[in-house]
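If I may wish for something, please walk me through the protein I am sending here so I can picture the backbone:
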Amino acid sequence: MGFSILVLLGELWKNWDVQLFVMLSLFLQLFLIWFASLRKRVSSQMLHISIWIAYLTADWAAAFTIGLIHFQGNTEKVDGKNNNSLYSFWAPFLVLHMGGPDTITAFSMEDNELWRRHMLRFVAQTVATGNIIYHKPPPDKWLWVPTILVFLCGLIRYGERVWALYCGCMDKFRRSILRDPDPGPNYAMFMEQYAQMVEDGYPTRIETIEEPELEQDLHSFEVAQKGQLQGKQVIKDAYRFYQRFKGLIVDFEYGFRERNKSVQYFLSLQEDDAFRVVETELSFIYDAFYTKAAILHHGKGYFIRFLCLSFVLISFGTFYVWDKVNNISKGMHFQSRDIKISYALLLGAITLDVISILMIISSKWSVAFLVKDYESKEPTFSNKVAEKLLALKTRWLSAFPEAPATSQFMFRPWSRSVGRMSLLNYYLDQRHPKCNKFLDSLGLRLLFDGITYVDTYMFNQNMRKLILSELKQKSKAADDPQKIKNICSARGDWVLYSYGVEEVLELRNWIVEVEYDECLLLWHIATELCYNAERRWYDEDRNISKALSDYMVYLLVMKPLMISNIAGISDLRLRDTEAEALRFIRGAMPDLNDSGSIFTQLDMLCQRMMSVLITDVRPKDVKGTRSKSVLFEACRLAYRLLNLPKEVNRWEVMSRVWVELLCYAACHCRPTNHVQQLSRGGELITVVWLLMTHLGLGQQFHLEDGPTRTKLIVQR
């Protein structure tokens, strides 16, 4: 029985190997062009894993199939039938598939650094496909036309992918931002003239004046002063900020002239508009590193894309005429399945190109390309076209009035969701230790923890309003480099100082005297304890505090690279705190499993923790340096928060502290780590980082106000 199954599988492989892999390659291309763009809008791990598998499999399937065709071309014909005669026609489609869809060129930023490998593979697959066509040419002269045209399309698409990867690598990106070399004024000639004037006895002095701004730099964004921005204006301004400030990604510095213009613009915006502009700018950054958008959206790019579609349409028409004229599908030379697969490849190529062109036309890049003339006062033809494109998007969304805005993810620039992880819930709902040990050995525990213990919270209007209000307040106070530095280094203490209340100022001990990761854990557990102590009292600041608290711990545990520069010994501190929490739960709550739901268990745990006697003896004085646990030090902080004076709104204090802790992490995270997250649904911390920079709260600005010009003044 087993032997017959193997024989059957062998026959199936012998007769269908190339056909199956050709269709697999086509399916993967269709999957990627539809779903790859969702990875910047959805934070689902399962979706990202599916896209990752499809991305890796697509290249392998196409290259493997080219190898199969090359091997089949060297085998003898079976039963006198020319079974392999259409393989040379299929080979160019596989090169086309290796070019990939426009929606994904790189899965991660590291893929861009491997552009040389892709270039070598491009050369190798081109040679292999050319060898197939040369040594086993199409059986009819009619098929030469579609074969060559599809091969040219494949070379163009694959070349586009290699070029996009090259443009997305950090070295090329950095060099593309650099201006042309400028030696400056001729110092030797200037000083020679100055010395000659002094020697001749002319009263001479050197005067330095500031160079006038360029015309486009004088653009003052008047529309921002008139209320809510229109869609076209958002895209235009976001694209302009992207072009001017994309050097932030590679640690470029900017002058205070550019900073002040950016600050002036963002201070004039309402919270919705400010976040829309920043989110759209991040969308441009995502496209530049992970798609072909940056190399397609210009005149030549549009022409090449329409040229490829024309080639594929001509190929389809030629093949169709050849099929009907020669009645191939009913003849003895070709199998019907191969004819159907050929049609599927042609229709698939047309579908991919049509979808690609529609995406190009409807993208933000096209709108930015059409309205790039910033100073145009009259409604130009390109502006009208851009407005029509945006109107079509708006009409499409309005066709689904019953769907909430958060579910209309097709056009949102990032997931607009905030990951949440509660440590106390995590401690109560632990897996069996042997299960955790097994997952650790496979390196999969973090993945399963993310699926099991992390949920999401939609980034709502109240959170936007609080964050922008805090940042605007700090931006107005940051009027010199030292104040900017102080504000960026604040991690809650700046907020506490603003209250001027002694009991509030005492909370600084749990901020400035501890490391950042310890501060996060202390305030997270304290927030959880306070939140459960007042579970039935509704307050928006309370909900924001809880959401930001869970989000920062989510970053600390699930995405430590986002705060690796300031995390300290977070892993050790987390493990020690977990060990102490589990020991406390086993000792103080032996009947835990009979306590009902997880919410009931959480209430019990918080009550037991707060019932521990709070004295002047700190847990650190008892533990010494042996353990880094912060569990009961957080209880002391929660006790202080719950006993703040009545005139102080504790939840307002806590929400503002959490915003400042978020801002501290945002501006101390490496820019490349921010860009990495754009391909995984985006993160709130990345949006806050870019918003802080545009409000002048960053360390990328230097003192020089702008370029100057030196003149030699001779008095007569």
Q: What stands out?
A: The longest helix spans residues 2-35.
